[in-house]
Amino acid sequence: MQYLKGQRVVHPSKPDWGLGEVLNHSNGDTVEIFFVGVGLKTLALSYVEPEKIRGAAAVNVHLDNLARNPSENAPKYHSLAKATDLFLAQYPGGFHGDRYMTEEREYKDTASAKAKDLLDKKTMAGMLKKKAYSDIVAQSLLVLNSTTLVFPNEKMAFRDGVGNEAFQEDYCLALNMLLHGSEEPSERFSTFVGALDDMSATKWTTATYFSFLCNPESQMFVKPTITQNAAALCRWEINYQPKVNWQTYNLILKLAGHLFEGLAELEPRDFIDIQSFMWCVAAKPKA
Hints:
About 50% of the residues lie in helices and about 5% in strands.
């Protein structure tokens, strides 16, 4: 039987491997398939013929976003089940355990509450109306300094940028659009990144920090190394670029959403839990 690149299949006797996708046209003897449950497998067609799947049963968000050409030094694939085991080994109580709350969640909750208070829609509207840009800058710095999520040198670049009065109005308007605007998410994100560019303060961390804390239900904090490691472990394509861009960020949001749904049994509250999960399993990728 011939198998074509992109076809969805299952192993006839290993249902725990889950749905798979053919990565290359078969040569008649073997076929390479990525299964969501176990990763890459090369099957000898003389021993097994995978069952081709079509229609609704072939739909799979993970395979739709699969990184089909990972780098040679990419960490070994971890199924979500294996990643969950790694997380629970560190935090046996899961997202609601005492250790997790103390080490990972509570300080982010505190920072999120501060961000929502200092940068809420009504407060910012009032300051913008009075053109009190320096006040918004001061509020931003209080939020930025409420955690150690952003590296000190990146905080310094941001502080120097917003400290320049020439950039303050554009920054404040862009931040308000990012957090409270009605424009398309891509426009809001790109406008804020543009304001950071003007200040020479654009980093993935500073570009995503404020929206993450103010809207953790839908926005993600991006720390480049951890995010790339997590995506590689999941074999999820994020098209990472050092230059901050909407396409990569949108793919990261899709990954966060996929993890949120896949971890439903652990009852994650929002993307704060997902960011912590990614950090715990990807800070030091296991072989």
